[in-house]
Amino acid sequence: xxxxxxxxxxxxxxxxxxxxxxxxxxxxxxxxxxxxxxxxxxxxxxxxxxxxxxxxxxxxxxxxxxxxxxxxxxxxxxxxxxxxxxxxxxxxxxxxxxxxxxxxxxxxxxxxxxxxxxx
Length: 119
Description:
The chain is 64% helix and 6% strand. It is mainly α.
């Protein structure tokens, strides 16, 4: 079991952020000691790591909650499938945009010039 300070240190999230994620429903009810201090189990810590990963993928907290809720059920509704397909397209678009940026950088590095003459 981990205190909130230990969870913060382990994940790199601030204590306030962890509390916010709990309040927003991204974390299940975190256990509390008799003194009301939160204690985080290994599954809670794993869930925080998943949230961090999803945030790095630019998912909103609402989207993260949606996917975490999906993981609780084995029966995907048409709404869940539709949401996942929409997000898949969003990620593919982001990947295409990033690839364009990489191609631009590679081109400039190959030519050895950032600006065209006369620009």
